[in-house]
Amino acid sequence: MPKNTGTLFVVATPIGHPGEITSRAIEVLSQVNTIICEERKIASRLLKGLEISKPLLELNEHNEAEMVEQVLLKLFEGQSLALISDCGTPVFSDPGRKLLEIMYGSEIPVVPVSGPSSLMTAISVCPFDLRQFYFLGFLPPQTEQRKQVLQRHSSSQEALILMDTPYRMAKLLEEVSVAFGKKQTIFLATDLTLPGEKIYIGEV
User: Fold this and answer.
1) Among 12, 69, 135, 189, who pairs with 89 as Cys (CB 3.0-4.6 Å)?
2) Which CATH superfamily is domain 118-203 in?
3) Helix (H, G, I), strand (E, B) or coil at 173
């Protein structure tokens, strides 16, 4: 490990209700030198609610390759940084994987600060047998590619878990009904831990 390097903390933040953030997450966010965020506006809102003021570095799917160098420079200077996503647990289905690869390759300490996860929250209230499941995550935005992915898994014996943005939800359900049939039983959870939370179990 290089001497006197900083530490990268990977910090989970609320998926909805602001009270979900842990005391350890607040402590880490208060103590690091800089916070790496997915979107500055969303991170600023979170930190304002926590009464924390820190410099922000935006790192997302559009600039991750360029931002890694800036992050590395700060860490080699001995600064400690926190990585957060717009909500929930970072890196999983969010930007940051390339950054982590380089952190481990550079022998820079990476510390997880666990907390809310939309995936685990949904699983905790799902009555399906999920001792084994296949996580498909976010499907490609292109219609044909989405159809191909769903068709490829249409005969799966394991539960499939999908994630998507609210504005594509109707399209996703239509695609699922085509690939699996309208009688397919689904579990749908949206806006978890928020006042508008909805959970549906039934046919597509």
Assistant:
1) 12
2) Tetrapyrrole methylase, C-terminal domain (3.30.950.10)
3) helix
**Rounded Cα distance, 25 and 9, in Å:** 9
pLDDT at position 4 is 82
Query: What is the mean predicted confidence (pLDDT) over 34-40?
Result: 96
Q: 29 in helix, strand or coil? A: helix
CATH superfamily membership of 8-113: Tetrapyrrole methylase, N-terminal domain (3.40.1010.10)
User: For the purposes of burial, counting CB atoms within 10 Å of the CB of 11, is it exposed (0-12), middle (13-18) or buried (19 or more)?
Assistant: buried
pTM for the whole thing? 0.90
The whole-angstrom separation of Cα 99 and Cα 90 is 12
pLDDT at 94: 82
Amino acid (1-letter code) at residue 2? P
User: How do the domains of the chain map onto residue ranges?
Assistant: 8-113, 118-203
